[in-house]
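To fix ideas, we close by showing one paired sequence and structure record:
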Amino acid sequence: MAIQDIYPTALRLLGRPVLVVGGGRVAARRAKGLLDAGARVTVVAPEATAALRELADAGLLTWEPRTYRSEDVDGVWFVQTATGDPAVDTAVASDAEAQRVWCVNASDHESSAAWTPAVAEVDDVKIAVNAGGDPRRAMALRDAVATALETGDLPLRRRRAHRGSVALVGGGPGDTGLITVRGRRLLGQADVVVADRLGPRELLNELAPDVRVIEVGKTPGHHPVPQAEINRILVDEALQGHRVVRLKGGDPYVLGRGGEEAEFCRRHGVEVEVVSGVTSAISVPAAAGIPVTHRGLAKGFSVVTGHEELSEVPARADHTVVLLMGVGQLRESASALGKAGLADDTPVGIVENGYLPDQRVTIGTLGTIADQAEAAGVANPAVIVIGDVVRVSPFAPSHFKTADYSTTSPNKPRTSTTRVLTP
């Protein structure tokens, strides 16, 4: 049978009687698939696998423990042979053909009246692949298509009317490879994308031409689209039946106003999903080789914005402070931390455009970093890390290294040796 002879279709077998002839592993697999489709399954086989017997004992299918009879095909809508005996399978297929009942002959795909495709489901999309009767090839293709749908490389957008919804998607620090699989898939389903200035902007170029992108990006001190308006946009678009993705940089729940947006959507009866992202507070320092915690150096960290009061942050070099959106008030923040008791020689690292081609790292001390940043023209987006963990960075000057920490002796006490750190 040539591939051109195949007419692809899908059978709706809910409540309809079907016949499986055979009791082995293939028969069990096919019977399970037919049950999943809602069919009333009868299995005819002298012996049956434990899986089939369990289904029969549970009352989910009927097992006739005997050999096949021609009258078994009477009144059924669909037949699957899986005896492993070509003579029996051929006899079943012949009886089904005589009664104009579609039959899959597992022993001879070339003469089989129907083929069973390799199947996968992603959300509400069912993928069925036939590959010229080659089951291994079909499975490989099925898996490739399913993976592309899972990762968002292929779109999952609905084209017919559906209930609107909002997904708050954390896009990570900007590199397109750092968005989650779930976030990428939802982006591929979107009708409308409400986008921040940060995050994986290159993914917007991959959207279908009819996907609307609404720009609501903010910069420090400049909010052209107020938060209240962003909230209204999300709800209005969803109530029009659109699938809305709020694409945010980092994680929507880490200083990202995600909680406010989710609450506003729920209050207005809009279904909302939150997809956590790779927060820039941790990932961007990591891009410069700076861990926010490190054995022997720091056991905890605080994440704040440069716009907040820093007096409550632990003023110790062994407690890492991560400043987001803090470049504009770096001098004031450094001064506040100094007044709170943090030493001037505390290491500070600034990572601009983390994970992007123009990433830049500036390292100094609490006492020098403001002047260094000003001289270098440091600008947002940037993450500022304050604490002894900066010493671990491969970008740190050699004299920043210290024997005060050890990955093999984490409980080694810190020494009181004075460290002189110069920019």
The first strand starts at residue 17 and ends at 21. The radius of gyration is 31 Å. The chain is about 25% helix and 20% strand.
